[in-house]
Known about the structure:
By secondary structure, the protein is of the alpha+beta class. The protein has 13 helices and 22 strands. The protein folds into two domains: 78-372, Beta-lactamase (3-Layer(aba) Sandwich); 391-506. The strands form three sheets. Strands 5, 7, 14, 15, 16, 17, 18, 19, 20, 21 and 22 form an eleven-stranded antiparallel sheet that branches. Helix 4 (83-96) packs across helix 8 (196-205) and helix 6 (156-163) packs across helix 7. The radius of gyration is 25 Å and the shape is globular.
Amino acid sequence: MPRLRSLLLCLTLASPLAAQTPDRWQPIRDSIEKQLLRVTGAAMSVAVAKDGKIIWEQGFGWANREKMIRADEHTMFSLASISKPITATGLMVLAQRGKIDLDRPTNEYLGAGKITGLAGDASGATVRRVMSHSAGLPLHYQFFYANEKDRRPPTMDETIARYGNLVTAPGETFRYSNLGYGIVDYLISRTSGQSYRDFMRKEVFLPLGLTRTSVDIGPGLEPYVAERYDRHGRPVPFYTFDHPGGSAVYSSAHDLVRFGMFHLKSHLADQRPILSDSSIDAMQRPTSPPAFGDSTVTYGLGWVHHRSEGGYPQVEHTGGMPGVATVLNLFPTERIAVVALTNGGGNPFAIAEDIAAVLLPRYADSLKVARARPQRPPTPPKFTPGAELAGTWEGTLRTWQKTLPMRMTIESDGDVKVRIGPEPKAGAPESEETQLESLVNGVTWQRPVLAGRFAGTIPTPDASWTPHSIGLELRLVGETLRGEASAQTPDTPVYFSVASYVELRKKR
């Protein structure tokens, strides 16, 4: 029998039919391997499913260069923001059981830390709006590294009390918020009576057969986890967050494509239907105002929804943070799920497009045209304020500790200057509360949003300990400019983006 099997294998490999059958995935394999050569130590895993079956999955490169562990389709990668549709699935389990009403104010389910209505009424910050990034919460992220001695994540109540401030009115606009999904995971914990990690494992991962999926790194899964590497191929120290539901899930390409198949309603025999088809539809249905400045892109409950190349409806999420780049694309009408995950090397976004192009001819044609266009970034127009903006605006910047005076001068030539704190007295030294006037750089005006960045310090202990700049994003509402001033660190390493509320009125 062994000789017969060997003979049959040789005949198969030598047959004219086999020789003429091209491997449609080989050009993508070649592209991945070429990309990974540019970053020492990086890995990528991919998976694709169609019509309820996984038709290709494979790993490339090093999951852990130091331990000489190769990546495969079962290697677990940090998912970054693909955590959001996974966390949303957990909350929808509770909603389907009647434990949470998506249209009730989120504050009804919170504890000591409550969402604060500054730009709007907090009762309008419903669970549905928090899940669709339309409640009015700021961007927000805080990274806490294992090699830091003194910084640890605050409790969720502390984070919500400090930064759960509405910087736009509920329902007014789309504003992507990691903090919102930190709140979602906290709702899961408070409502279920279990930790977020335990609930997700028992009620989502195990019923769906996702044995290589966990919140953070589950016990016993350490050998299967890909190390995170920076763009120079150096290991990134382990880090966590104060918004786990937005960023802390790990999964393999194999598990994640199965998660995608569940959301395509493939009804796999080894997956328990934790959500009804109608609940899955509700998650994918556009809920937010148009996202990302593009009227064709909207956000549902954990999912981005838009038209892809070739006009196919696409439901997806991506992720990116130090040592992480991830893609999960669903094409519901074609019953296709595509996954591409890396630990710091390659371009998974382009690879996911290439995979879809193999299966979708119209997509392939449109993608070819799109990639042939010049890829020069658009030059923003010079900021020239009209009468509604030019002048001096005065008001306050409210941190979680205190409220400070703030003044912004918008000059007719387009220069914008900002001062935080009271006017300095002659001869008095600069302090955190009395700062020099700063020029705002990169000013843009896309009515009604004025944005830019300036040198300064937000004088709270969780921001002032390290150098940062301040990102400004204000909306003109009537005769008021309101929004956020976010203390943001550079990207080497990333520590935080934490927002304070700004409200200014023009001086007459």
